[in-house]
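hey so i finally got around to running both of the ones u sent me last week. sorry it took forever, my laptop kept dying halfway thru and i had to restart like 3 times lol. anyway pasting them below in the order u listed, first the sequence line then the structure token line for each. didnt double check formatting much so if smth looks off just lmk and ill redo it

first one:
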Amino acid sequence: MSIDLNFALLMIDDHINIVKNPWIRFYDSGEATIRIDVIKKLQPYCKNKYPDTKIIFELQTNGYFSKDIACYIRDNFDKIFIF
């Protein structure tokens, strides 16, 4: 089961509006990049809605993903945790 996109957007808005230095970590009990489609919707939302806010994007992963996803991660995440 995946997080509801609208719920995630509301939680992101709350988080960014409450904390001084926001960060968002993507993780899953399995592998977060299985739902890279959702991540690819949430990150641009944050960047477009809050262009003047530095948001730290983190990813917790097992490191098992395609080269295309690896390139996306390289270009869009500040911190990566491989477990």
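and the second one:
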Amino acid sequence: MKYDYLLFDADDTLLDFRKSEDVSFQIVLNKHNISGNFKDLHTSYKQINDLLWTQHALGLVSKDVLKTERFRKFLEVNNLDGNASEMSDDYLNTLPSQVFLIDGAVDLLNSLFKKIPLIIVTNGIGHVQHKRLNNSGIKELISLMVVSEECGFSKPDKRIFHHTFGLLQADPEKHRFLMIGDKLETDILGANTVGIESCWFNPDQTKNTTDIRPTFEIDRLQHILDLL
């Protein structure tokens, strides 16, 4: 193997968060009797949610505030009546049970299992991410999962990577790491910051308009095997 450790992002790299979010959000809307054009409502929520997660990564918004604030702003922007706190609780209770995998994830992990340690480094809420992994069917293939809420730092902060290195008792100057993820601004930038190689998983073949440069770029998970 060319590397000693593979670090994977979770959402939209191994786990299909887009689909999980779609289903969970619809369930919450139905429970709270919120009707309307689902696509428009979901787009509105995602824009608010993405902005808050970006602010959280910058240290501007706490995780506890984010959980409820995204629904409060969603209701406000769309002139809807509802209880943001209850919607937040229902969403976080629903999301872990709505788990879908990215195409090729199971085959890739099975082919690498016991050949190289498979680590997940993910931004997210601890109990939600652990429940989702438990329900995914791939938990036994993963050596370690590091969640931003539990260690106190979010990608691209170098400290979440150093926390991971510490748990593995591995030195990035002596051991070879590859970070694989779908987000340039968190996964790839974070890897670049700590000086490890990176692979941008870009299934939609989106053009990179940033200054962030991955070591590799793939559009299918099985192509990772070509890098090893």
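quick thing i noticed on the 2nd:
The longest helix spans residues 38-57.
anyway thats it, ttyl
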